[in-house]
TrEMBL record:
It comes from Arthrobacter hankyongi. Gene3D superfamilies: HAD superfamily/HAD-like, Putative phosphatase, domain 2. This is HAD hydrolase-like protein. The lineage of its organism: Bacteria, Bacillati, Actinomycetota, Actinomycetes, Micrococcales. PANTHER family: 5'-NUCLEOTIDASE (PTHR43434:SF20), PHOSPHOGLYCOLATE PHOSPHATASE (PTHR43434). Pfam families: Hydrolase (PF00702). It comes from the Bacteria.
Length: 240
């Protein structure tokens, strides 16, 4: 057990869970069903991470008045089959078990709508590993400006919850953000905590480094070593 309840914030899609094409395929099928153009695969891949409403407008060119329709089509299919098709990345569940055993506080910080994120964690059997979950609301069709805040308020809410759990006004323990997109890293930097980039996710080459990631990790084992380095001062590779 650690003597410090270190806080680790995890992104969801692309970090804990591999959507296995359910997000990009679901968006493609929703656009097709709505009679709208489908972007090429690289563009669809870049739509994993940001709020869906923002991605549909900015990357797929969906008119404002059609965004809610496309989101409704996408979410219906995602709940029906996409969650079950998703897969936990190799080694992640075992890592969560070890972190819990060491006394870490674990949170999910995702731009996925919170109820859907909670359902995905339950379907994948991961819900019991986390102390709390912080996500977006269902207002993305009506509020395109909200995307400009990125993940900053979500990470802020997770840090505030960690402080409240410790009975302090501000978080006074080490905290780290783990994510696969620049949104995750930028939010961590904004709040003054380090971020570890998950190379197995959806970031383009160099994206995580350019955003200011403390390190980019390539496996659950690599992630564990860097977490211990950041929160306990144990050099990466020392346990090998």
């Amino acid at each position: 057990m650690t003597s410090f309840p270190a806080l680790v914030l995890f992104d969801l899609d692309g970090t804990l869970v591999d959507p296995a094409g359910s997000i990009t395929g679901g968006i493609s099928r929703a656009l097709s069903a709505a009679g709208l153009p489908v972007p090429p695969p690289p563009v669809l891949g870049s739509m994993v991470g940001p709020p869906l409403g923002h991605s549909l407008r900015a990357l797929a060119g969906v008119p404002d008045e059609r965004v809610a329709e496309v989101i409704g089509l996408y979410r219906a299919e995602y709940r029906e089959r996409g969650m079950a098709e998703s897969r936990i990345y190799p080694g992640i569940e075992e890592l969560l078990q070890r972190l819990r055993g060491r006394g870490f506080r674990l949170s999910v910080a995702t731009q996925k709508p919170e109820p859907i994120a909670a359902e995905l964690l339950r379907v994948q059997g991961l819900a019991g590993y986390f102390d709390d979950l912080h996500g977006a609301g269902f207002d993305d069709p009506q509020d395109p400006a909200a995307a400009g805040l990125g993940k900053v308020p979500i990470v802020g809410a997770a840090l505030a919850a960690g402080a409240a759990a410790a009975g302090t006004a501000a978080l006074q323990v080490p905290a780290v953000m783990v994510g696969d997109r620049h949104f995750d890293v930028a939010a961590a930097v904004q709040h003054g905590i380090p971020a570890l980039g998950a190379a197995w996710g959806f970031a383009a080459a160099g994206e995580l480094e350019a955003a200011g990631a403390a390190a980019v990790v390539h496996s659950a084992e690599d992630l564990e070593e860097h977490l211990m380095q950041l929160v306990a001062g144990i050099p990466a590779g020392a346990g090998r």
